[in-house]
Amino acid sequence: MASEKNNHHRSIPDINGTHPTPKKPKLSSSSNFITASEIQSEFSHHDSAVSRINNGSFGSCPSSILSAQQQWQLKYLRQPDHFYFNHLKPAINNSRSIIQNLVNAKDINEISIVDNATTAAAIVLQHTAWCFREGKFNKGDVVVMLHYAYGAVKKSMEAYVTRAGGKVIEVPLPFPVSSNDEIVTEFRKALEKGKVDGKKIRLAVIDHVTSMPCVVIPVKELIQICREEGVEQVFVDAAHSIGCTDVDMQDIGADFYTTNLHKWFFCPPSIAFLYTKKNPKTGGGGDLHHPVVSHEYGNGLAVESAWIGTRDYSAQLVVPEALEFVNRLEGGIEGIKKRNHEAVIEMGEMLVKAWGTHLGSPKHMCASMVMVGLPTCFGVRSDSDALTLRTHLRDVFGVEVPIYYRPPRDGEVDPVTGYARIFYQVYNKVEDYYKFRDAVNQLVDNGFACTLLSK
C-alpha cells in the first residue's frame, strides 16, 4: 500500500489530475478512537428490531457521514450553477485522489468514480463488445468468467459480449470449497477450453470476493496464470473488496478493477471506483466510455463519469468523511478488516456447532463474511425455497440474512443444501447472531421444513 493512502488532507487536483505531492497523514492517538457507544450512536438509525447480519448487500453509512452528505446536497440546492461550476469537479477529484492513495494506483487518471460495480462492469464489457463489432476481436473469441459471477455481470455478458459475437466460458467452481488449488485447477481447465481451435481469450472476469456463495478468490494467482496463458486483459469485479480485504493495484496487477465504497467503506449509496491501468505506451487506459453519454464524451472516462447529467452526486463527495470515520477506529482500515474477519469466523463457528453443520470454506478463504450451513431438515431444494426462508426469517424473527441453495451432488446422502451468508460489520453485536441461532433452533424444534411455506 502507498504510504500516503490514509491521507485525505491533500491538495485538490484539477480535472486532468495534476496535483502536488501530498503530505504524510498524522496518526490518530488512542484517545481519539471511537468508543463502542459512539459506534452504536453512529448507526442508531438502523431498525433496532432487526438483527442485520447482511451488511454486504447494501452496506451501512454512519450518521456523521449522512450529515456531511446532506451538507453537500444543500450546497447544491442553494445555488446549483455555482455548485456545478465551482465545487463539483474539484470535490470529485478530491475523492478520486483519496481513492488513488487507498488502493495504491500510480496515477489519478487511472481512477474513475461511478455509481456501483455493476456500472463499472457495463463499462468494461461494453468496450469488449465494441472490440468485437469493430473487428479488433474475431467472432467466437472468448471471454472467461467464474460460474459464481454476480448475476448482473452475467446479464451484462449476455447484453454486450454474446450479442457482439463473443463466446463466454464459465469456470465451474466447487462449493463447499476446501482450498485455493481447487479454484486454480478449474480456472486452468477453462483457459484450455477457451483456446481450442486457435481461439483467443480476450478478457477474463474474475471476482475478488464472490457474492453468492461468498468465497475469497486467489486473484493474484489467477491473474498471473492469465499472463502466462496469453489472456489479453483481466477485469476484477471486487464489489465487496475495499474495507473487506486487501486492495492494492500494484500488487494485484489487473487491467481493470472495481469495488464499491458503499458496502464496506461506510459511504452512502451509491459510489464505486473503476481502476483502468494506464498504458505506458499511449499514456491512456484504453478507449473506455461511460454508458451514459454526456457532453463530456471523449474527454476520458474519469471526466465522463464525473458528469452524466443532473443528478445527486453527494455520495461521491463524502469520501474524505468516510476515511475520517475509518481512521477513528483503532488500526484504521486494517484494524477493521482484521476484527471483522475474526468476529465473523467466531460467529460462524458458533452457529455451525449449534446446528451440527459446517462452514462453506476455510477461514483463509473468508473475509468479513462467511457461508454457514443450515440444518438439513429444512429441506432447501431450490432458489425459491432459499428466498422464502429468508423472507420468513425477516418477517417472523426479525433476522436479515441471505440464504443460498446449493444443489446436491450425485450420490450425496443427506447433504447440506441451504447456507446462510453471514457478515460482520463494526455495528454488529454478538446478540445479532444469537438471535439468528435461536430462530433456527426454534424452527427445528417446531419441525419446520421449506415445503410448509410453499403450501
From TrEMBL:
<dbReference type="InterPro" id="IPR015421">
    <property type="entry name" value="PyrdxlP-dep_Trfase_major"/>
</dbReference>
<feature type="domain" description="Aminotransferase class V">
    <location>
        <begin position="85"/>
        <end position="368"/>
    </location>
</feature>
<dbReference type="Pfam" id="PF00266">
    <property type="entry name" value="Aminotran_5"/>
</dbReference>
<keyword id="KW-0663">Pyridoxal phosphate</keyword>
<protein>
    <recommendedName>
        <fullName>Aminotransferase class V domain-containing protein</fullName>
    </recommendedName>
</protein>
<dbReference type="InterPro" id="IPR015424">
    <property type="entry name" value="PyrdxlP-dep_Trfase"/>
</dbReference>
<feature type="region of interest" description="Disordered">
    <location>
        <begin position="1"/>
        <end position="30"/>
    </location>
</feature>
<dbReference type="InterPro" id="IPR000192">
    <property type="entry name" value="Aminotrans_V_dom"/>
</dbReference>
